[in-house]
Amino acid sequence: MPLMQALKARHSAREFASRPLPRQVLSDLLWAASGVNRPSTGARTAPSAHDWREVDVYAVTADGAYRYDPPTHTLKQVASGDLRRLTGVQDFVASAPLNLVYVADFDRMSGAGAEDKAFYSAADTGFVAQNVYLYAASAGLAVVVRGLVDREALGKALGLTRHQRIILSQSVGYPAATH
């Protein structure tokens, strides 16, 4: 789909079909979010201030929670079981096939003060989330970004350290059937 068409189609949706995303769709979605698009430097599809690459993408499905590793384009399991309900306070998050969780690792942001870490990690997360929106529009998927998250409970379930902070979550799936 041409970029202008994807931009026109981009929108938020809060109703999802229950069927899971095929592996190839998940793979393409994660690559669009934050994959390596310049192997010679390891640079990613989303920009990152000072090339810190501080934003990690976690994929939470009915099977478990996984951290996306861009250099190897693989998922690393961090928790088993269905943690989707922890990714937000809205009812639909518990049944959305995929909830992405964007986590900033402040230890990677060398030389930055607390205010800059908060600012730049939020901006960099926005770039990643927008890539997901554009991919979803091009693939006919439903998507919505969310900030309403119990960060403490979800962080504990994901095994995050005190240097990691949940910035946003984003639900993705096929659109719910319309009546």
What is the secondary structure topology, with strand pairs?
Layout: H1 3-9, H2 23-34, E1 36-38, E2 43-44, E3 55-61, E4 64-69, E5 74-80, E6 98-105, H3 114-139, E7 142-146, H4 151-158, E8 164-173
Antiparallel strand pairs: 1-2, 3-4, 3-6, 4-5, 6-8, 7-8
Helix pairs in contact: 1-3, 2-3
Task: Give a nutshell description of this structure.
Residues 7-174 form the Nitroreductase domain. This protein is of the alpha+beta class and 179 residues long.
| Unreliable segments of 5+ consecutive residues | none
Count of distinct strands: 8
Looking at CATH, the homologous superfamily is: NADH Oxidase
Global Rg: 15 Å
Integer count of domains: 1
Main beta sheet, described? Answer: 6 strands, antiparallel
CATH fold type: NADH Oxidase
Distance between the termini: 27 Å
Highest CATH level, the class = Alpha Beta
Q: What is the helix fraction of residues, given as a range?
A: 25-40%
Give me the strand/helix succession: HHEEEEEEHEHE
What gross morphology would you assign? globular
> With helices defined by DSSP (H or I, 4 residues minimum), what is the helix count?
4
- CATH architectural grouping: 3-Layer(aba) Sandwich
Question: Order of strands in the sheet with the most strands?
Answer: 5-4-3-6-8-7
Strand-residue fraction?
25-35%
What would you call the structural class? alpha+beta
Mean of pLDDT: 94
